Amino acid sequence: MSMIRDLRAVVRPSSRIPLRKESGPYDTTRDPATTTAVVDCAVYRGGRRLPSEGGPLTPHEAMRLVRRDGGFVWIGLHEPNEAEFAGIAREFGLHPLAVEDAVQAHQRPKLERYDDSLFTVFKTVHYIDHDRLSSTSELVETGEVMCFTGRDFFITVRHGGQGSLRALRHRLQDDPELLAKGPSAVLHAIADHVVDGYIAVADAVQDDIDEVETEVFSPGRKGTPRGTDAGQIYQLKREVLEFKRAVAPLLRPMQLLSERPMRLVDPEIQKYFRDVADHLARVQEQVIGFDELLNSILQANLAQASVAQNEDMRKITSWAAIIAVPTMVCGVYGMNFDHMPETHWRYGYPLVLSITVGMCLGIHRTLKRNGWL
Fold this sequence. Notes:
Elements: H1 2-5, H2 7-11, E1 38-45, E2 48-49, H3 59-69, E3 72-78, H4 82-92, H5 96-104, E4 110-114, E5 117-127, E6 140-149, E7 153-159, H6 166-173, H7 176-179, H8 183-217, H9 230-247, H10 251-259, H11 267-333, H12 348-369
Parallel strand pairs: 3-7
Antiparallel strand pairs: 1-2, 1-3, 4-5, 5-6, 6-7
C-alpha cells in the first residue's frame, strides 16, 4: 500500500517542470537513416529492469524471456511504418485494426478492447513559447501516443516530435514496487503524464487569453477602449479548438478505465484512474470556458470597432455641417445678379463674414456639447 500512496508523486513530477522542450538526446526524433523504429525495449520482472547482455534486446528476444521466466516487456516505438511494425504485431498478436491506427496516426483519443489487449490513444499537447501573440502565432503543438496493454506486454507508439516518454520510463524504473503491478501501472503513468501536460498548457493559454482581454479593454485614445486585431483573437480560438480536440474525447476512456472492472488493469491501479479523470474533467471545463470567453472578447472587439466607426462618422458629419454654412453663403453671393443690395453696401462684406463665422462657431459649440466633436 505504500507504493499506492506514493503513486501520484512518482508519475507527476512533470507538473512542476517549465513548459519548454526537454533538453537531451531523448527528445530528438528518430534518425531516418536507422533501420528500426524501436526506441527502447526492456523486460521488467519484480518491478526491476533486467540487464541486457550483448546489446539491446529485440522484441522477439524480450518476449521469449517473458514467456520463459515471467514479467512483462515494455517496447517503445517512434513513428514506425507498416513493415517495421508488422513483426511486432505478429509477435504479440495485435489486432489488425489497432495496428492500422497505430501506423497511420491522426486518430481521435479513444479506448478499445481487442481480445486480450487494450488499445488506447492519447493526444499529447505542447505549448509553444512566443514573444507576442499575432494572427499567425501557433500556441499548441499536438502529437500522439498509442498504447497496447496486454497481460505481459506494453507497447507505446509515439508520433510527433513531442511527448517523449524516456524521462517517464526512468522515473518508473526508480519505483520497482509500482512497476511490479504490471503493464496497467505504466498505462496509468502515461495517462497521468499526458493529463498533467494538459493542465500546464491550459494555464499557459489562460495567460494568453488574459493578455488579449486586457488589450481589448484597455483604454486608448481619450479614455475609450482601443481594441485589438480580430485576427489574433480568431487565431487563439483556433488553437483552443485544437486543444479541445485532444481533451474532450479522452474523458470517456478515462471514465471507463476508472469505473469498469477490466482483467488487464490491476484493481489498486484502477482507483487512481479516477484521479486522472477528475483532472481531465477540470481541464475540459477550462477549455470550454476559454472558447466561450474568446467568443465574448471577439464580439466586444467587433462592437468596439463599430463604435469607433460611428464616432468617426459623427465627426465627419459635424465638420460637414460646419463647412456647409460658408459654402451656402459663398454660393449665394457668387451668383451674378444685378440687384443684390449687400454687394454695394460699404459694410456688407464684414457683416456677412461675421455672421458666417458666428454661425460656424455656434454650430461647433452645439455639436461639441452634444459629444459629436
